[in-house]
Amino acid sequence: MVTNRALNKIFRTWSNVAVLRTLLNTNTGFSGNGVSRVAGMNPRSVFKALTSLEELDIVNRVFGGRDNIFILNRKHFLVQQIILKIYPVECKFLDEVVSALSAILKRHVYRAVIFGRVARKDEKSSALNQLRRIIEEKTKVSYLGELYTSSQTKEMLKRLDRFRKWSLEILNR
């Protein structure tokens, strides 16, 4: 059992986190292929993650005839104290982002639609940061009456162009 820096081992890879998210949504467990299917991952990556988490006693393996079933060990201290508590917080994160944007844009936007990679939960934070920066700059001009210098205008156009390219990339898929 790992006791020092256990979180480093648990959250070491993206695949470990994806497997944990999948197992959090079931009390009866999944076969390795079931985890792979639900998580949308390569079966080999899932097996490595499950083995790693099993070695840490975060996941229990129930040996079966044809398939082994993997179940989240909800009795484990770190599962109870950390994993089961942070997952609901992560689920609320999108709602918080929407609330924050609503506060920024109140009375100026009637409807906002989440689309593309964000809706598919495959977003890139850099593209969303471009949108955030554009909104911040728009707010400065609209509400504070600030004027742009030539360099600020060029920077704003660069951000707008990056966001436009990202949006068109999504729309053209």
Task: Explain how this protein is built.
This protein has about 170 residues and is mainly alpha-helical. It is built from eight helices and three strands, in the order ααβααββαααα. Helix 3 (about 30-40) crosses helix 4 (about 45-55) and helix 7 (about 125-145) crosses helix 8 (about 150-170). It starts with 5 loop residues before the first helix and ends with a helix. The mean pLDDT is about 80.
Rg estimate, integer Å: 22 Å
By DSSP, the count of extended strands is 3
C-alpha end-to-end distance: 46 Å
Overall SS class: mainly alpha
Largest sheet: 3 strands, antiparallel
SSE pattern:
HHEHHEEHHHH
Shape: elongated
Strand order of the largest sheet: 1-3-2
Helix content: 55-70%
Number of helices: 8
Q: Averaging pLDDT over every residue, what do you get?
A: 78
Percent strand equals: 5-15%
Query: Uncertain runs with pLDDT below 50, 5 residues or more?
Result: none
